[in-house]
Amino acid sequence: MLSFWETLTKNSDLFIPGFLSTIYLFIIAAIGSLVLGTALAAMRVSPVPAMRAFGASYVNVIRNTPLTLVFVFLVFATPKLDVAFPSTFGQNGFFTIAYSALTIYTSAFVCEVVRSGVNTVSPGQSEAARAIGMTFGQVLGLIVMPQAFRAIVPPLSSVMIALLKNTTIAGGFSVLESAAIRQNISERGGDQIHTILWTLIFFLILITPLVALQRAMERRWAVSR
Amino acid sequence: MAGIALQALTKVFPGGVRAVDRLDLEIADGEFFALLGPSGCGKTTLLRTIAGLEEPTSGEVTIGERRVTRMPPGKRDVAMVFQDYALFPHMNVVDNIAYPLRIKGMSRSDRERRADDVGDHLGLEGLMERRPAALSGGQQQRVALARAVACRPQVFLFDEPLSNLDARLRLEARTFLKRLQRELGVTTVFVTHDQSEALALADRIAVMEAGRIRQLGTPREVFGRPANTFVANFIGSTPMNLLPATVRDGRVEVAGQRVAAPADALARLADGDEVVYGVRPEYMSLTRSAVDGALSGTVSIVENLGSSALVSVECNGHIVGATVPEGSEPDPGTTVWLAATDGRVLLYHANGELA
């Protein structure tokens, strides 16, 4: 039997790409869902009824769909519709599907968090901005969003932590990421409890900088508010 | 510079509230114009419609020679100061003042120079790098003014800009505002619910109720000859005496006494007509000895107003107010006589309109 430490070192060929995949999935899906989620929030507060309706439908459908189902749809249904996901970032198509599913799913949550932040900015702010001649885009981008983001740092951090943990679902869909390491090590006859403990430690280490970032942003904006 | 013309302007909110009702109004170039009225009278909606923040249901808004009814706010060449100032909390004072100029496409050095000039002029030197949260209420108010002034607009629109200041600062800011408007000569529309503010600042006042103008005139006209009992009630720091009366043989019978009334008003009334007898407490003289043709009663309440006192006298079941100079207040319970100053009595029809 390998010791707790050796489980990590002797299987580094599995642990390193697994952990790296998790980090990549998280970074790509985080950026993607922040952009898409903010755009959806902008739609939901826009003066155009069709955009508001689209934003609201998107959130209502995606937020109420289990993430696993989003994965299942992209992995098993899209080939039937003749949609093939190309390999990206030097990884295969399953990796592309994984960050797409995570982005689609998480952006519904980001949208709602950003929208709640927009609602904390007093309506007088956007009126003042309109009165000095800003367009809707300028009002939102230059006046409302910078103020809204201050209010949403804590809930947005929670959404990002949830995203980090949700990346493990990709393990069930042919992506070698941290949660999939256990399966592979189990096939080699390695110690599963050690593997799970190492995976847990890895997630705790990853979440620490996220929490630190949240604290730093809150402190910075608390003073200058 | 430009005047403002409103034609049959109507604003009905979803739900049927008629905030502005077929309103016609001309505001002259360079005029300081006050919209005065109680909460919910439509004065702020009217201002916001001029600004372009509300779209009218019908009617036209013209600024200068341009019809601006369907134009977005930024194209109207107006600058608005909001009640809560609406300064941008994530920008310092310079950026707050210069931001509208940036939107207009002015270069960075030009707009910062202009922001500094305006800031100096409005007493903001030394505060330009601060954020709004680090300023006092009075300073924030001046930043909001500076933001409007820096645009050099055709029209200023002020939505109760003084109401968030404490009483003392409000008086200072009032004087400052009037001087600034005189210097710049920019047409200004000022919304307030404070009649003393309107009287002190405006060249002309429109007193509004339920989306309509009840009286339009100079402060002197509105104070001296209120066109109806609504305006009479609203204007004046002490409430005007409005007593039910009846026309009798060239005089009026008020609170059981026959007293003199203006001849021109009586000429338009018939004997026996029910009227409202109106006179301001400031124009009631109070004596402790009997006077012919005066109301008599007993003193019930004395309120100190500083340099004067407001005395409430119960005359035959009606409360009549009179102001007396400090030091000559009667004791509650004493019998006194109240006579109105000649030429200061107003008679209103039973429907509330001036006779």
The greatest inter-chain interface is formed by: A-B, 18 and 25 residues
Q: What class do helices, strands and sheet pairing of chain B give?
A: alpha+beta
Number of helical stretches of at least 4 residues of chain A: 9
Task: Give the CATH architecture of chain A.
Answer: Orthogonal Bundle
Biggest sheet features of chain A: none
Q: Roughly how much helix do the residues of chain B carry, as a percent range?
A: 25-40%
The total number of structural domains of chain A is 1
Summarize it.
The complex is a heterodimer of chains A (225) and B (355). Chain A is built from 9 helices and no strands.
Overview of the structural elements:
By secondary structure, chain A is an all-alpha fold. Chain A has a single domain, classed as MetI-like fold (Orthogonal Bundle), CATH 1.10.3720. Helices cover 79% and strands 0% of the residues of chain A. Chain A contains 9 helices and no strands. The N and C termini of chain A lie far apart (57 Å). The mean pLDDT of chain A is 85. Chain B is an alpha+beta fold and 355 residues long. In chain B, the strands form 4 sheets. In chain B, strands 6-7-8-3-9-10 form a 6-stranded mixed sheet, sandwiched between helices. A 5-stranded antiparallel sheet of chain B has the order 13-12-11-14-20. The longest helix of chain B is centred in the middle third of the chain and has 18 residues. Chain B is elongated. The model of chain B has no long low-confidence stretch (mean pLDDT 90).
